[in-house]
Specification:
Two copies of one chain form a homodimer.
Chain A (H helix, E strand, L loop, with lengths): L4 E5 L10 H8 L3 E6 L6 H6 L8 E6 L7 H19 L4 E5 L9 H8 L5 E4 L4 H9 L10 E5 L4 H10 L2 E5 L5 H10 L6 E5 L7 E4 L11 E5 L9
Parallel strand pairs in A: 1-4, 1-5, 2-3, 2-4, 6-7
Antiparallel strand pairs in A: 7-10, 8-9, 8-10
């Protein structure tokens, strides 16, 4: 009998924001897989480091950071094949995922390759979006507000049109797109309604009004925008 | 010295989807507060029931389900006053919140009343949105997709315009708005791309294509819509 594939959301970075279910599955894991940069650094593994059993087999999936999709897809092909060997041998495999596996997560590429063939369970996790709201003391959305989540790489015109049409807005994956995002929010008169958060829940966390944001933003940074009056104030 | 107010996200319903931090804070709590319906039923309390210490003081905030906002606001006024008494006496108060406190959560009304006067910490939780994606095996958003979260009570024309302009869509708080939502999705030709989920992560969970959804939906139900090709499939 084949093993089960688990895609496990670890939350935004603070290991204590892992769920009880993630903790149970990781601490009992025989095989643990995770994405890593080409130099081997894995944010996902760092979140779960104290929970992974010392004798667990570890599969590192090295994801090349190229603009073309081919090399990354080849890396997921290889990672999926490595995982499948264990599943075929009847061993469960736990895949560690930053945040939530199905919220802009790379687990979906393994899921697409393996879920049709093996029993698969996805364990949701706390996203960086609600964590940024929590640490900045700003509710994300209230009552009948529409919430729009916009990835930073969106092109300028599209981003501006979408923010203009939106109510509450979260801009994710800010990183090198910060100058473009500032320009868009300035053009819309929303800069003073924007909060910048980087590395939410980690010791290096930073929460400041957008005007006070650093010139260089890391990939794990986000901007929250509320328009007009906060509807939760009364 | 005053106590600290904690707003704690409990996740979508399965107690194992609580975070380690929520577990630690609730299991050590002296005073626990939570919203409840007028008959006393509290979904938040039911999630944390096995973690609340038997000798903890419990504050039930009875929220009247009226269309006018006045009665509910009066209930939050009273709840905030009850909580403040404990904070003034130097006792920490843990407020239990379904899902995430700042994601369409009622905690924001207590936060608005108390956070200016008392030390306050918001502990994010797993939302029903990513849980619905996990249990239905459908990634919410990939790469540079924009994700739009729409509350079911939105009026029909507004809902239709927002879904038409969106990429990935989640419709929350479906409940009695299901017939209207069906009509909107039919008009947009999106019914076959829609998945209905109720009570995600609970034993009574239901996941079906929208065509197979029941006629009556509970408040805790949601519809996920993806348009066209799933971008994560390759």
């Amino acid at each position: 009998m084949s093993g089960t594939l688990y895609g496990i959301g670890l939350g935004p970075g603070d290991p204590e924001l892992m769920t009880l279910k993630a903790y149970r599955l990781i601490s009992g894991a025989e095989v643990v897989a995770y994405p890593a940069l080409e130099d081997g650094e894995s944010f996902a593994r760092s979140i779960a480091a104290d929970v992974i059993p010392p004798d667990a087999v570890e599969i590192t999936i090295h994801i090349p950071m190229t603009v073309e999709r081919g090399p990354a897809q080849a890396a997921y092909d290889k990672g999926a094949a490595d995982i499948a060997q264990h599943l075929d041998a009847g061993r469960d495999v736990v895949v560690l995922c930053e945040g939530d596996p199905f919220f802009y997560g790379s687990f979906m590429y393994l899921f697409a390759r393996l879920a049709g063939k093996y029993e698969t369970e996805v364990v949701p996790g706390v996203t960086s979006v609600t964590t940024c709201a929590a640490v900045s003391g700003r509710p994300l959305a209230a009552r009948n507000e529409v919430l729009t989540i916009i990835p930073g790489p969106l092109d300028e015109a599209d981003m501006q049109a979408r923010i203009a049409a939106a109510e509450a807005v979260v801009i994710m994956k800010v990183g090198r797109h910060l100058p473009k995002i500032r320009k868009v929010l300035d053009a819309l008169g929303l800069t003073e309604h924007a909060t910048y958060v980087e590395r939410a829940s980690l010791p290096s966390q930073l929460v400041v009004p957008l005007e006070g944001a650093p010139c260089e933003a890391p990939y794990f940074s986000m901007i929250l925008v509320t328009k007009g009056q906060d509807p939760w104030l009364n």
